[in-house]
Amino acid sequence: MRAQAEALRDYIVAIRRDLHQHPELGYRETRTAQQVIAQLTTLGLPYHGGVAGTGVVAELKKGDGPTVIIRADMDALPIIEDTGLPFSSCHPGVMHACGHDTHVAMGLGAARLLLDADFAGTVRFVFQPAEEGCYDDPDGWSGGQRMVKEGVHAGASAAIALHQVPILPTGQISIRDGAVMAASDEFEIVVHGRAAHAGVSPQAGIDAVVIAAQIVTTLQTIVARNVGPTDTAVVSVGTLQGGTATNIVAEQVRLTGTIRTLNMETRAHVHARVATICEHAGAMHGTSVDCRIANGYPVTMNDAGIAAIARGAARNVLGEEALVELPPLMGGEDFSFTAQAVPSCFALLGTQGPERSPYSLHSPKMVVDESALPLGSAWLAQTALDLLAHFAAPR
């Protein structure tokens, strides 16, 4: 499979470069979808467009048998590209800084590899919009969540996906059991104070800035003193806004931030601690503090059985030395919704070239080693074949 994939390198890279040059934000991937459809049409694969807004779903069916999903996300990020590549983004302020252009290209490469493969069953290719966020979705759903809601995963025995990671050398792939990516939640805290003259009569006010400062400091104790040393969590305040003048006690301060956890128990515990800290801070100062925590993406969990088959496919096409195991990453990933709907495996594919660029995901300077792309296509295709064989075998 690897040799066949290497023969498709020019095809895969050309698709990637075209998409990289024309990035589109979530739920706006109209040109990207058109390019995907054009390739699927050339391959002779039936498809449905307009799925979950701008998504595309195609199937390669060869007789009766199980169904395996290969998922690729399509959206870019609101980032100004600074790579200097000859195929840099031609859309100012939008860049494929997470590598979803490579995911689409590798997914289409896998489809082309599987056209001539011998198997019984169906490979369903899911080209998904809006992984990076919910954007203006009326229900507040990301593309992965909306696709699950629309039943894209019905009848599937397993699903696989990969994410390129420039922190891992090309030729390596990380496939682990259990948590791969963190739950990603957001909080908004509003401290209600009472305005007064900060120089003449500060005692007449309730200083929302002082309360907010205490909340920020106390939130840092959650990870240090409420989460066990062998567990993992992140609580970060990202914005703090309040006050109107240097001589006025602030009447209101607004804080926002993120919570990252790797299991449901820790997630619930951290949420409860944030809410309690806010409630008690308000009571201590004779006022109220509103706390809203919005659940984002759940933990991306690999099924141990599917991951074992995926590792076997990696050994087959990439070699034993390719397999590594990165610790769980604290970024969020909406393949987590797929993994809740069907047994799944999410792999991390190394795309760091020999120049060892220090720039990683979401950097305006991120560069992908394109020699990794045929490896990703080969792994996707081989894993799909091995899963189809596994689920078709008598039990």
Describe what you observe in this structure.
With 395 residues, the protein is an alpha/beta fold. It has two domains: 2-181 and 299-392, Aminopeptidase (3-Layer(aba) Sandwich), CATH 3.40.630.10; 183-297, Alpha-Beta Plaits (2-Layer Sandwich). It is built from ten helices and 14 strands. The strands form three sheets. Strands 1-2-4-3-5-14-6-13 form an eight-stranded mixed β-sheet, sandwiched between helices. The longest helix has 21 residues, at 264-284. It is elongated. The two termini are 27 Å apart. InterPro entries: Amidohydrolase (IPR017439), Bact_exopeptidase_dim_dom (IPR036264), Peptidase_M20 (IPR002933), Peptidase_M20_dimer (IPR011650). It holds the Pfam family Peptidase_M20. It comes from Jeongeupia chitinilytica. Residues 186-281 form the Peptidase M20 dimerisation domain. This is Peptidase M20.
- Give the helices and strands as they follow along the chain: HHHEEEHEHEEEEHEEHEEHEHEH
| Total separate domains | 2
Helical residues, percent:
25-40%
If helices are DSSP runs of H or I spanning 4 or more residues, what is the number of helices?
A: 10
How are the strands ordered across the major sheet?
1-2-4-3-5-14-6-13
CATH topology tier name of the largest domain: Aminopeptidase
Give the rounded overall mean pLDDT.
Answer: 97
CATH homologous superfamily grouping of the largest domain: Zn peptidases
> What would the principal axes of the Cα set say about the shape?
elongated
Q: Low-confidence parts, pLDDT < 50 over ≥5 residues?
A: none
Please summarize the sheet with the most strands: 8 strands, mixed
Number of strands: 14
Distance between the termini: 27 Å
CATH 2nd-level architecture of the largest domain: 3-Layer(aba) Sandwich
